[in-house]
Design a protein that fits this description.
The complex is a heterodimer of chains A (239) and B (258). Chain A is an all-alpha fold and 239 residues long. Chain A is built from ten helices and no strands. The N and C termini of chain A lie far apart (57 Å). The N and C termini of chain B lie far apart (66 Å). In chain B, 36% of the residues are buried. Helices cover 41% and strands 25% of the residues of chain B. In chain B, helix 5 links the parallel strand 9 and strand 10. Classes of the chains: A mainly alpha (239), B alpha/beta (258).
């Protein structure tokens, strides 16, 4: 292990980590905004409403993320019509191509998570909302979405960690994210063990922060679920 | 599942693994495993049947024939090439690899089997002056982990935006879309690409780039493999002298690249 190499290139690796975080944060936020309406459509009783989001989700869950990135970055740019259109301002930049691919990918996965959460809401709570005479919008806003949020939280935390690691694929379209940076530096120094260990360590730290954040939110939003018995082992009430 | 069953299962699986390991090692002793990239036309690429072909591959095969050695040619991504050689995944790299001081610290090289140069490539009809002053603010590309990529980062990194690609093909692809103003590439593969349909709208720009040292291409092997190195050097000398090299050269370029 050559520690000098790691110390020397740490600032550059951190610079790469910053881009990784930016990619995950931006695509994560837009992804959720797309996923929520899609999940609501997917939970609809009408098959005509369900079919469009189903196709979208099927495509983005059923193909590798790398293929999606290549299709958007190298694929779209093959058409002169695309290159001449206003879209090119965005699609020209590898950064935005990565954001688009990550966003659509995470939106598809999250939408399925949220749909499951929506359908897992206890029937009684929905009946109660109906009994109060809430219309669909009010019921969705007050009961369905807040309840689904709590139910989906642990699984969604998992999705964010997965996304953090998938973001390494951004390095295949010239972006200098954490992985891209480590690959480029090791191409010059021939010390893959040192650099990938250092990069892996930074990924671990970032994943740790994400996991901690979601644990905190779970404790807060789902606190009613945590049952702490108020009796000691002998079955006697605690004072 | 009972404990005994689990133990039997684990032993079986371990046995199979051990068998494969011993199998490959015995195999490795008899043959020379040569790695190439397969994405660097016309030196190494894949034909329609998915076989590795090209100048590097033909030279490797000619050397093996000369050495009367049993060779297998394997494919390896470019930026993992040297780590994999050091990790004993194969014994030699014949993939148009330049001999550089940095690489010599990591691996050993045979005598050079051709001489390379760098050149700028840009779209026809556009002006791309290649002095540093005129390149200010341009976006230039190259393949990651290559002499061309290092040249861009070291010599022009302060004035141009450098984009590094995993394969040369991807760099060409991105220049064709206009994302790149130009690229720096090894001259001979660029010469080959410019004659293809995809490259017909592009041309060399400016003079051939002068680098500090002449760019010699050699076969990389691990350190302390003196015997293998001498075998390669002897075979290389023989194919140059008996005209085999010239025949292969002529198939790819109308001029000598030795």
């Amino acid at each position: 292990m050559n520690w000098d190499i790691i110390i020397k290139y740490y600032p550059q690796l951190l610079e790469g980590a910053l881009l990784t975080l930016k990619l995950v944060a931006v695509s994560g936020i837009i992804g959720v905004m797309l996923a929520v309406p899609m999940a609501l459509l997917r939970a609809s009783p009408s098959p005509w409403v369900r079919v469009l989001p189903f196709c979208f989700i099927y495509f983005f869950r059923g193909t590798p993320l790398l293929i999606q990135i290549f299709l958007i970055y190298y694929g779209a740019s093959q058409f002169e019509a695309v290159r001449d259109s206003v879209l090119w301002v965005v699609l020209k930049e590898p950064y935005w191509c990565a954001i688009i691919a990550f966003t659509l990918n995470t939106a598809a996965y999250s939408a399925e998570l949220f749909r499951g959460a929506i359908q897992a809401i206890p029937k009684g709570e929905l009946e109660a909302a109906d009994a109060f005479g809430m219309d669909w919008l009010l019921k969705t806003r007050r009961i369905v979405l807040p309840r689904a949020f709590g139910i989906a939280l642990p699984a969604y935390g998992n999705e964010v960690v997965l996304m953090l690691k998938s973001s390494a694929l951004a390095s295949t379209i010239t972006l200098m994210d954490l992985t891209g940076m480590a690959r480029t530096i090791q191409a010059r120094t021939y010390t893959p063990v040192e650099l990938f260990t250092a990069a892996g360590f930074i990924y671990l730290l970032m994943a740790g922060v994400v996991i901690g954040l979601f644990r905190f939110m779970e404790n807060r939003f789902n606190r009613y679920q945590y049952y702490k018995p108020n009796v000691d082992q002998m079955g006697v009430d605690k004072p | 599942m009972s404990v005994r069953k689990i133990i039997t299962a684990v032993t079986l699986v371990a046995g199979v693994f051990a068998g494969t390991l011993i199998g490959t090692q015995a195999f490795a002793g008899d043959t020379i495993r040569i790695a190439t990239e397969g994405a660097y036309a016309p030196f190494n690429m894949k034909n329609e049947q998915g076989e590795l072909v090209g100048f590097d591959v033909e030279i490797a095969k000619a050397l093996c024939a000369e050495m009367k050695a049993d060779c297998t040619i394997v494919e390896q991504d470019w930026d993992g090439m040297i780590p994999a050689l050091k990790g004993r995944k194969f014994d030699a790299i014949v993939a148009s690899m330049s001999i550089t001081p940095e690489r010599l610290e990591a691996v050993d090289f045979t005598d050079p089997y051709y001489t390379n140069a760098l050149a700028f490539v840009g779209a026809k009809g556009t002006e791309l002056k290649t002095d540093k002053e005129s390149l200010k603010g341009k976006t230039l590309g190259a393949q990651r982990a290559t002499i061309a990529g290092q040249y861009l980062e070291d010599e022009l990194g302060d004035v141009v935006s450098v984009k590094l690609y995993d394969t040369q093909d991807n760099a060409y692809l991105d220049m064709a879309t206009g994302r790149l103003d130009g690229l720096v590439s090894d001259k001979f593969p660029a010469y080959d690409w410019l004659r293809t349909d995809a490259g017909k709208d592009f041309e060399f720009k400016g003079e051939t780039i002068k680098t500090e040292s002449v760019d010699k291409i050699g076969i990389a092997i691990r350190h302390n493999q003196e015997e293998l190195k001498q075998k390669f050097n002897k075979a290389l000398k023989a194919i140059v002298e008996n005209g085999t090299y010239e025949k292969i050269n002529a198939k790819y370029f109308p001029f000598s690249i030795y």
